[in-house]
Structure to design on (1130 residues):
């Protein structure tokens, strides 16, 4: 029964992953990330992702504050560009493809000193980021449940 | 007519000028217009000059004519004046001598006597008449009814000059006192004072009322002293002789004597009083043109006379001047027109040229647009393909058996080939614009061909056609050239063949040109396959008839002329098929882009028809030629040559591109190929030999069986490891039946049952499910699906023979990477926590011990010698200090330490027993472009890997310096 649950959970996870892939939210880099996870580092993916979320949140906050200054004339586009590069780098590392794509557009807007374009991009970026976050959380929850289910199943054997 | 000509020419000129102006307006933007304008200006300047010249000619000729006319007039006038003058002077000179003669020119001659007042009474008495005065009281001497009787007697005067004798014509003046007329009196006084003939100014003669002059001579008595004074003369005067001249009649008579009197009008004036000249003779006919004036001297110095002559008629039109100048003008205009037309033509051509150039620019723009379109589309295709490839990669990392593994690898390779193909289509634009440059990298021809084969293996298996490749042993293993382009050509040709072949075979062979040239003696089995058909079946790969492939390259330059000896490797590649062939009429345009044999082709077979033209371009670029021979219904053979350099076999280089199939596993094994068709057997043998397997061929079952038996009985060197039987060794399905023969042998006791038979493999292009089921029962260990490829054969053999470990093979690279990185201390420098974590994770996976640094400065500190790190992965884009700068500082640090060690100032013990510090630094970069790479190398980095990490790339980058490192540690 529990084993079946684990199998179902795994199927659900796969479906969710497939959906995310299909939507272009994630790309193969995420797969590579998963491959890096093995016995020696069982929580590798979730560790990386949590770092990613932490860093990204910081960057997003910075971007928001940079763009929502009172005087739009003095917006520091160079700083925005640096933050975006950071965000893009980490996004491509975890395979957050859509976030990365939005970052690209954002960066293009910032390069043209296009304040309203930046603002629009920021909105989209936050939306994408939230989506990615909820979906990945969902995924990790399932993973946890699966591990727990698997653990529950194998636990008697181990003990 | 000339004028009309001129007029039309002018109007034409104007018209064309208008046109030109329009054209000018129209083409003003083009700058090279200036040249045309310039020429036009010159032309018009020239025409203007010509017209001016003709006008000048006209003017000069006209002036000439006028001058001549004037001269004529002057001559004529002078002549007349001279004559008149002569007449007068002559008249006076001979006057006395001729008094007696009736003279035409003098109206009349009269003699007046000098009578003093004292003598008047006596004189009047003597003559019986009174001296009368000339003028009447009313001062009008000019009267028609002039009679002396009516005249009043002369008033008293000091002196009188009554006419006593007169000629009959002037008899009316007898008794008239000449002194009473003012003119006459002056005349008389002057005449007797001067002693010369004196003329009056013209006046109306008495009675005749004609204009005339009176010439007066004084008559002296005999005692006039020589050289007398006027007083002595007056004293000596006896009387006066007067002659009246009727000037008009005089001149009239004179002029009558001269010719051409009618052409000129002559007027004679007395101009003594220059303000009011008196007309002495002349008609009032208004002559035309100008007047010529000649002075006439009638011998009286006090009086002046002039003769005015003018032509009676208007000067005729100067026809000669007009015609000459008009002729010149017309010629000039005609020549001008010709030049103008020529200029127009030139201009038109120039305009066309400009237009063409503009069109060319537009076409090029369209070309660019096309390239951009291709780039976009190929990018769009590439993106999903990456997903496919990623998934395949994942699939391959799962537990698969050898066949599945091969399938997955094939799928991945095909996917990669597809991406490459997209890129290659993209290159068509480059080829066409001449921007394509060929690479020069080492590559393995056999690998390239295997790749192409695997790309088409599905199709050929589906169609059930044989697809085989043969590379001559003389072709070097490693060539230097452009493998991608080479493969593109072969892919195109094979793709075409696969498309158009429904049954039979497609055979790709690669030879050296020299080899083929020298093989006219039919030494090579594979080259010489063509025409020696046995019975109905030809000795070809599939037994189908093929075209004479020699014809496809007989026109090649390389074959006609001996190539100079060099290290260049001339390859001859032939792709032979038994397809539908190319219709004769289409053969001439087969290499034209987008041109297919006929329009139905694309409907039946699809495709754009661009492939062959690309191939031709590429072959040209490679310094080779492409040719073909084709017969409809029989098949086609395409051949091309390509020039490469021979490359040194260097494993390190090669591994980056194509991992070598593990050869060593099969080294020294023996195999037997059983096939009735020797061509096919040769090819199978060729592939097995590439795996290091020693191969024999049996062309019939009997020799095969005996061979197997013999081998079974032998042990050691003669031992057979495998038998490969073609499914259609001697015809349909005969291959499948072969093991049965063997089984029969065994039953007959010819073979010991426990003797381990060699593994049997079936070679097939296609297998039905029932045949698959039959296989095992028939005694085959496995099948090998054609086209044969070493990797596939190796996989199959491994599975069957249990050679090598699956994991080692599949994860060979990962293992190699693991072995390389295991236990190595690696520093990862990245400011991005996520990237750091991922990179560290990736490297840890391969057993490396990873330390992380989050900035360039931290990295520099950690890499201060001595340190424990074996390698460093450095992000390029970091705030504060980027990867380049950090690397530069690390390198300078190392150099300093190295110098210290070298100079002995510091012992190497201080620096961890390392004599030379140089940590390999690999750049991690998201954008892998050439400029970045060069920058990396320039600032002292060793290599770069792109983010996110890829297994192969890390491997190739790391292997580079860790391999040499392991060698060092071993030594």
């Amino acid at each position: 029964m529990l084993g079946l649950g684990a199998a179902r959970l795994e199927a659900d996870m796969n479906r969710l992953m497939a959906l995310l892939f299909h939507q272009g939210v994630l790309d193969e880099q995420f797969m590579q990330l998963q491959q890096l996870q093995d016995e020696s580092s069982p929580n590798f993916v979730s560790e990386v992702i949590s770092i990613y979320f932490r860093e990204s949140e910081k960057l997003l906050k910075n971007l928001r504050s940079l763009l929502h200054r009172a005087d739009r004339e003095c917006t520091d586009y160079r700083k925005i560009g640096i933050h975006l590069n950071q965000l893009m780098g980490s996004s491509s590392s975890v395979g957050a493809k859509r976030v990365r794509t939005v970052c690209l557009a954002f960066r293009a807007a910032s390069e043209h000193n296009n304040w309203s374009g930046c603002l629009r991009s920021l909105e989209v970026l936050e939306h994408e980021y939230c989506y990615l976050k909820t979906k990945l959380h969902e995924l990790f929850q399932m993973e946890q449940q699966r591990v727990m289910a698997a653990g529950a199943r194998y636990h008697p054997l181990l003990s | 007519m000339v004028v009309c000509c001129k007029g039309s020419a002018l109007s034409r000129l104007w018209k064309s000028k208008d046109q030109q102006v329009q054209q000018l307006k129209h083409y003003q933007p083009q700058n090279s217009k200036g040249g045309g304008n310039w020429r036009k200006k010159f032309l018009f300047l020239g025409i203007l000059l010509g017209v001016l010249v003709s006008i000048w000619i006209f003017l000069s000729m006209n002036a000439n004519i006028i001058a001549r006319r004037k001269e004529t007039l002057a001559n004529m006038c002078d002549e007349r004046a001279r004559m008149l003058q002569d007449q007068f002077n002559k008249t006076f000179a001979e006057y006395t001598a001729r008094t007696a003669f009736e003279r035409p020119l003098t109206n009349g001659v009269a003699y007046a006597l000098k009578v003093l007042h004292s003598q008047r009474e006596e004189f009047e008495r003597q003559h019986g008449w009174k001296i009368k005065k000339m003028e009447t009281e009313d001062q009008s001497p000019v009267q028609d009814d002039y009679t002396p009787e009516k005249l009043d007697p002369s008033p008293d005067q000091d002196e009188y000059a009554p006419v006593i004798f007169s000629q009959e014509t002037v008899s009316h003046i007898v008794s008239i006192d000449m002194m009473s007329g003012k003119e006459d009196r002056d005349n008389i006084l002057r005449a007797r004072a001067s002693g010369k003939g004196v003329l009056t100014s013209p006046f109306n003669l008495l009675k005749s009322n004609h204009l005339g002059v009176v010439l007066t001579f004084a008559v002296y008595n005999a005692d006039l002293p020589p050289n007398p004074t006027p007083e002595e003369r007056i004293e000596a005067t006896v009387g006066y002789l007067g002659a009246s001249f009727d000037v008009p009649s005089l001149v009239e008579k004179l002029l009558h004597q001269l010719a051409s009197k009618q052409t000129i009008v002559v007027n004679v004036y007395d101009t003594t009083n220059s303000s009011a000249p008196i007309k002495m003779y002349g008609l009032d006919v208004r002559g035309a043109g100008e007047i010529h004036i000649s002075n006439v001297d009638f011998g009286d110095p006090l009086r002046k006379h002039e003769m005015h002559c003018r032509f009676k008629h208007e000067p005729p039109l100067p026809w000669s001047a007009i015609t000459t100048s008009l002729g010149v003008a017309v010629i000039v205009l005609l020549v001008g027109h010709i030049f103008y037309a020529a200029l127009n033509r030139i201009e038109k051509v120039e305009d066309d040229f400009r237009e063409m150039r503009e069109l060319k620019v537009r076409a090029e723009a369209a070309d660019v647009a096309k390239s951009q379109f291709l780039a976009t589309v190929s990018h769009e295709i590439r993106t999903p393909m990456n997903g496919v490839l990623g998934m395949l990669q994942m699939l391959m990392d799962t537990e698969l058996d050898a066949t599945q593994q091969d399938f997955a690898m094939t799928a991945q390779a095909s996917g990669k080939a597809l991406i490459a193909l997209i890129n290659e289509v993209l290159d068509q634009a480059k080829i066409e614009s001449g921007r394509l440059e060929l690479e020069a990298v080492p590559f393995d021809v056999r690998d390239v061909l295997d790749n192409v084969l695997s790309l088409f293996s599905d199709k050929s298996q589906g169609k059930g056609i044989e697809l085989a490749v043969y590379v001559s042993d003389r072709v070097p293993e490693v060539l230097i050239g452009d493998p991608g382009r080479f493969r593109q050509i072969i892919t195109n040709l094979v793709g075409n063949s696969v498309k158009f072949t429904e049954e039979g075979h497609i055979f790709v062979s690669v030879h050296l040109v020299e080899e083929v040239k020298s093989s006219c003696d039919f030494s090579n089995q594979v080259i010489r396959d063509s025409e020696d058909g046995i019975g109905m079946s030809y000795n070809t790969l599939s037994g189908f008839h093929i075209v004479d492939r020699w014809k496809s390259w007989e026109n090649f330059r390389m074959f006609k002329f001996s190539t100079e000896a060099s290290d260049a490797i001339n390859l001859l590649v032939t792709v032979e098929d038994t397809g539908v062939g190319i219709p004769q009429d289409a053969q001439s345009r087969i290499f034209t882009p987008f041109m297919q044999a006929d329009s139905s082709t694309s409907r039946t077979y699809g495709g754009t028809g661009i492939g062959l033209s690309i191939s031709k371009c590429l072959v040209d670029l490679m310094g080779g030629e492409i040719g073909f021979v084709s017969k409809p219904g029989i098949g086609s053979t395409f051949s091309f040559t390509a020039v490469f350099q021979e490359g040194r076999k260097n494993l390190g280089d090669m591994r980056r591109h194509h991992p070598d199939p593990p050869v060593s596993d099969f080294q020294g094994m023996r195999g037997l190929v059983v096939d009735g068709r020797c061509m096919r057997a040769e090819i199978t043998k060729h592939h097995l030999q590439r795996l290091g397997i020693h191969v024999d061929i049996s062309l019939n079952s009997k020799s095969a069986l005996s061979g197997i038996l013999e081998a079974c009985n032998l042990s050691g060197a003669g031992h057979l490891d495998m038998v490969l039987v073609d499914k259609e060794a001697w015809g349909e399905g005969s291959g499948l039946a072969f093991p049965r023969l063997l089984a029969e042998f065994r039953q007959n006791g010819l073979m010991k049952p426990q003797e381990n038979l060699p593994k049997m493999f079936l070679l097939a292009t296609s297998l039905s499910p029932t045949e698959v089921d039959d296989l095992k029962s028939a005694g085959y260990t496995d099948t090998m699906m054609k086209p044969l490829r070493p990797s596939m054969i190796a996989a199959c053999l491994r599975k069957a023979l249990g050679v090598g470990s699956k994991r080692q093979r599949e994860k060979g690279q990962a293992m190699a990477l693991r072995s390389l990185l295991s236990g190595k201390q690696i520093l990862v420098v990245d400011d991005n926590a996520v990237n750091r974590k991922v990179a560290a994770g990736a490297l840890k996976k391969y057993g490396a011990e990873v330390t992380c640094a989050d900035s360039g400065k931290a990295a520099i500190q950690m890499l201060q010698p001595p340190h424990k790190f074996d390698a460093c992965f450095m992000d390029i884009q970091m705030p504060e200090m980027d990867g380049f700068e950090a690397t530069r500082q690390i390198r300078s640090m190392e150099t300093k330490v190295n110098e210290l060690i070298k100079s002995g100032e510091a012992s190497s013990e201080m620096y961890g027993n390392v004599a030379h510090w140089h940590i390999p630094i690999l750049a991690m970069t998201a954008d892998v472009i050439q400029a970045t790479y060069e920058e990396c190398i320039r600032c002292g980095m060793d290599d770069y890997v792109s983010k996110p990490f890829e297994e192969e790339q890390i491997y190739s980058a790391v292997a580079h310096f860790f391999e040499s490192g392991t060698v060092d540690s071993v030594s």
Observations:
- Chain B touches chain A at residues 386-387, 390-391, 393-394, 397, 831-835, 837-839, 841-842, 844-845, 875, 877, 879, 926, 947-949 (CB under 8 Å).
- Chain B has five domains: 85-137+148-311, 319-419, 439-519+540-596+608-646, 670-807, 812-962.
- The longest strand of chain B covers residues 635-646.
- Chain B has a mean pLDDT of 73.
